[in-house]
Amino acid sequence: EVQLVESGGGLVQAGGSLRLSCAASGFTFDDYAIGWFRQAPGKEREGVSCISSDGSADYVDSVKGRFTISRDNAKNTVYLQMSSLKPEDTAVYYCAAEEVFIDSVCYETASPYDYWGQGTQVTVSS
To answer: CB atoms < 10 A from the CB of 25, how many?
Structure first.
C-alpha cells in the first residue's frame, strides 16, 4: 500500500519555526522526487518546495531564505524546515511523490505527482 503521511503541523506565532515531516512507504522512495504544497481556505493549491532524488531543491519565491527542504532516503522521509513564519504561511501542507528518471529534476506544479498525503495544518498567528 502506497502511503505518504505528513506530521509536524501546529499553531505558532509569527517569527516562529516548525519542521514538517513526510514519511513514505509502499514505493521505491529513492526513484521519486518529493514536493511540498499548501492550500489556504478559498485559494488554489500552490507549490512550496520540491526536492529531486539527488537532493537538488527548488522553492517558491515567497519562502526562499526561510524554508529548507531535505530528504533522508535511509528513513524514506522528507522534511520541510520552516523558519521566520508569517501569517500568510497559514495553510494545509501536503507532500506528494512523483517518479523521475533524471536525478536533478523535481516539479513545482501539482499535476505530475502520483501520490499524495492527507495534509497537516499549519497556523501562524500575528
So the answer is: 11
**Separation between Cα atoms, residue 41 and residue 91, nearest integer Å:** 7
Q: Which of these ranges, 14-28, 62-76, 99-113, has the smallest mean pLDDT?
A: 99-113
Alpha carbon of 68 to those of 44, 65, 108: distances in Å?
A: 22, 8, 15
* Strands in the chain per DSSP E: 3-7, 10-13, 18-25, 32-39, 46-51, 57-59, 67-72, 77-82, 91-99, 115-116, 120-125
Measured CA to CA, the distance from residue 94 to residue 104 in angstroms comes to: 21
Q: Which three cell numbers stand for residue 95?
A: 507532500
Q: Per residue in 65-104, pLDDT tens? A: 999 999 999 999 999 999 999 999 999 999 999 999 888 8
Distance CA 73, CA 47 (A): 22
**Cα gap 9→52, rounded to integer Å:** 23
Cell 522528507 belongs to 78
